[in-house]
Design goal:
The chain is mainly alpha-helical. It is built from three helices and no strands. α1 packs antiparallel against α3.
């Protein structure tokens, strides 16, 4: 039982540390995504100004040019992209944290099941020993008669 508690504690500590590390990395990912979003917004608005003034040096494909119709269109497109990226980051973080928790619980369940099996085996050994002792006692009682 104390061995199980030690294993459970060790596994909880390891999974907790790993989960915390993962969450820190994903916080950094969100910060980088925000920096990317800010830079993309700034760059897109600069390109839009050039498109409107017809000062763009290279020709944009038609589907891309349609995004640069007005400030709202380009801002909405960039914001939608940002939201999608953040959702993917959140989903991946949730997936990893959930899998770590599930792995920990599975590991603990296996340990507990092993302990139950060992205990059952030990009880069977004790019962067998008791039967042998009873048999020997009966033999000695029969000898005394």
């Amino acid at each position: 039982s104390s061995g199980i508690n030690a294993e459970y504690g060790a596994m909880s500590d390891m999974s907790g540390t790993f989960t915390e590390t993962v969450q820190n990395y994903f916080t950094q990912c969100r910060e980088l995504e925000l920096m990317h979003h800010d830079k993309l917004t700034e760059t897109s608005l600069l390109i839009m100004e050039k498109v409107v003034k017809n000062e763009l040096e290279e020709e944009l494909p038609e589907d891309l040019r349609l995004l640069f119709v007005d400030k709202d269109t380009i801002t909405n497109s960039v914001n939608t992209s940002h939201d999608v990226h953040n959702q993917r980051i959140d989903n991946k973080e949730d997936d990893i944290v959930t899998r770590v928790g599930n792995s920990k619980e599975s590991y603990i369940s296996q340990i507990l099941e092993g302990e139950v099996q060992r205990n059952r085996h030990r009880v069977a050994e004790i019962n067998h020993l008791l039967e042998n002792i009873r048999d020997e006692l009966e033999q000695y009682e029969n000898l005394d008669r």
